[in-house]
Amino acid sequence: MKGRFLVAIEKRPWVPAIVAALGTTLLVASAFALLAPPEFLDAAVALGDQRLALALLALFTLAACGFRVVFRRRRSAEEEVDLDPGRAPLSPTNGAAYPAAEGLAAAESRSHLR
Questions:
Q1: CA 35 to each of CA 25, 26, 39, 43, 58: distance values in angstroms, whole numbers, following the listed order
Q2: Would the pTM of this model clear 0.70, i.e. be above it?
Q3: pLDDT digits over 86-97, tens only?
Q4: Which of 17, 20, 70, 105 is the most buried (most CB within 10 A)?
Q5: Residues 98/91, Cβ–Cβ less than 8 Å
Q6: CA distance readout (Å), 74 to 10, 13, 58, 84
Q7: Distance (Å, rounded) from C-alpha 52 to C-alpha 16?
Q8: Beta-carbon neighbour count of residue 7 at 10 Å?
Q9: b or e along 43-55 (b: 16 or more beta carbons within 10 Å of the residue's beta carbon)?
Q10: How far apart are CA 39 and CA 62, in angstroms?
């Protein structure tokens, strides 16, 4: 079983997206500072503090939105059955309940097990 903290994090996908975006922004900025040639560093300094801050903010925003899309969680079929045990599972094609699941008697539904 998952802990309460992990369940709470799964319900709010923006939290891990923001943490991942912060890490990505820091990684890209530090990698640029360490690995860029001196000409690129001089050009970055020539841009000024305000433009560099806006570029970092844009990188953070794009990374946060991207990670939010990546961390989107879809419910599995098992979870849907657990939420409403009296309902038939959904069809993978159109989202409607299986038509054959409603009219089967108990003996007919287990005939494949014999």
A1: 15, 14, 12, 14, 21
A2: no
A3: 555 555 555 555
A4: 17
A5: yes
A6: 11, 12, 28, 17
A7: 25
A8: 10
A9: eeeeeeeeeeeee
A10: 26
- Which structure tokens are listed for 48? 């000024």
Tokens 């038509």 locate to 99
CB 25 within 8 A of CB 60: yes
**Locate tokens 């903010």: which residue?**
57
Q: Distance between CA 8 and CA 113 in Å, rounded?
A: 40
Distance of CA 56 to the CA centre of its chain: 22
Do 89 and 97 touch, CB atoms closer than 8 A? yes
pLDDT in tens, 34-75: 999 999 999 999 999 999 999 999 999 999 999 999 987 776
Read off the tokens for 46.
């020539």
24 Cβ contact partners less than 8 Å away, ≥ 6 residues apart: 59, 63, 67
Task: Enter the tokens of residue 107.
Answer: 């003996």
Q: How does DSSP classify residue 49?
A: H
